[in-house]
Every structure is written in structure tokens, then in C-alpha cells.
Amino acid sequence: MSPRRWAAISLAFGVAFAARVAGQAVQRWWSVGFLPEQDAWQGSSLPFPALFAAQIVILAIIALVTIRMRVGASVLPRRWVAPVIAFGVLYFAVMVVRLVLGLAGDAGLLVQDSIFAARWFTAYLPTIFHLVLATEVVLIALYQRGHRQRIG
Questions:
Q1: Are the C-beta atoms of residues 27 and 37 closer than 8 Å to each other?
Q2: Which residues contact 125 (CB under 8 A, 6 or more apart)?
Q3: What is the pLDDT of residues 51-60, one digit of tens each?
Q4: Which residues of 93-124 are buried (b: 16+ CB within 10 A; e: fewer)?
């Protein structure tokens, strides 16, 4: 795949995540009716200012990586490729399990007072965007693995 295609895919995930960040910020500061309520955007007890700052850093990293992909540049040290792929796959798997257990709990398939009824499992919007980020992590590592093969 060409560097431009890798960059286009990375850009798509970055735009999706930016929409999440913007949506949450809008609900936090101006609350509009066409977006989910503020609580739906929050999947943890992390204070919003810290979460927002972390999200801006993540967006900056995605932007930098996307620009580097577009010009065909390296984005990771070679020795990081396998660990980053493993981390991304594990991250994705944990978020899928989180989503499935939350949905099962909401459907009444699990004991109502179980841990799976906790907010962390039923915060679907954050979970979906964690899946986006996990996919971006894997994408970055796969790009780098292919980049290594092209130049190596």
C-alpha cells in the first residue's frame, strides 16, 4: 500500500477521534440537543480537563504520524513494531470484551449487581472511540512494518 493510502486511513481515524473530542467539548461547554448527553462521553472518573488535555496530545500524535506517513517517513523505531502491534491488538481485544460485557449486562444476560453493570462497561461511546484508537495503534505499527520492508 502506498504511503498516501496509509496516511488517508490514519487521517480517517484521526478525524473520527477529533469528532469525539469536539463533541464532548461542545456538550461540556455549550450542551446541544443533537449530541449525546455529557455523561455518555465519559467512561472514567478522570476529570474533564485532564481527559481533554490527553485527547489533544493524542490528536497531535495522530496528526504528526499521519504527516510522516504521507511523505513515506518512518514513524516508529524498528524494535517497537512487534510490541506496538501486540499492545494495539490487546487494547482492541480488551475494548471488545468491555463492549460485549456491557451490552450483555444491559440485556439482562448477567447478574444485575455484578461488576459488569459498572459504568466502565456500559459507557459505550468512549468504548467505541477506544476501538478507534486501538485500530490506529495497530495501523501505525503495520505501516512501520511495511516501511521497514520497503527500505530494509
A1: yes
A2: 20, 36, 40, 41, 43
A3: 999 999 999 9
A4: eebeebbebbbebeeeebeeeeebeeeebbbb
Tens of pLDDT, residue by residue over 36-83, are: 888 888 888 889 999 999 999 999 999 999 999 999 999 999 999 999
Question: Virtual CA dihedral for 16, 21, 27, 28, nearest 10 degrees?
Answer: 170
Cα(108)–Cα(102) distance, integer angstroms? 10
